[in-house]
């Protein structure tokens, strides 16, 4: 090997050594930077956990902002609120912000005004519906409860409670029920509570020949019922359990009134005794029995296939709901209709 080759080899080794040294220094600097950054992150974590001392100047500054709703055009807020469409949504809005639910010097709150506009401009209740809505005196009108009641009034009638045994919904609808047992009465109670106004329900007889339709006081506790024995409101063995749930809404003594479809007989009870009423022609499978409840006049009238049979009872006052009781493989469907 020549002297020149030796010199080139030495130079190459020196160059490699310098490169290794530079790489090592670069790695050390990188490690130092990573350690420093890691320490910063650890410090921030300790601050977030509330451990030890920390420099408040490093924390973000949060400025509390408030909105002066008095500067917002009330008509704009009302217009936006009217798009909520449902009473529960408007109630949620009132509970979210005091300014929306608080009565204004000029009259009703923003939410109440939104409910009024929704009723007047969009829902537009009929005269029949208006008659069944809450009434207020002394110039005070609470529009939100009126809206809520109208929503319930427009929900289709259904049997929300089945009491007894062997009774089932029919055709996949809660508006239709069928009794699967012989000689054991069970009762289906409708979902809407009538408090005022005029109401009409039609009952289509879809099977059997032992169906009862009527109105009764609303109550929720059926713990006194032995469902294996069925349930029929005119069974005097149930009178004490029903009367135990009497409320101030049970005005007067006409607590339950019924029409026995197959026999054409109307009866009523104060849950202390059984009162016989009027007898008309009976109804058969395929017929439609209508019940007209007039809480303005305090009367219950019976229709058969759209034809008035007569008044079953007067003296009705307070709250009622529709019901149907049946046995012997009978069935019925219920529907809310405009009074004839």
UniProtKB/TrEMBL annotation:
Biased segments, Basic and acidic residues type: 7-27
Disordered, as annotated region: 1-27
Origin superkingdom: Eukaryota
Listed name of the protein: B30.2/SPRY domain-containing protein
Organism: Thalassiosira oceanica
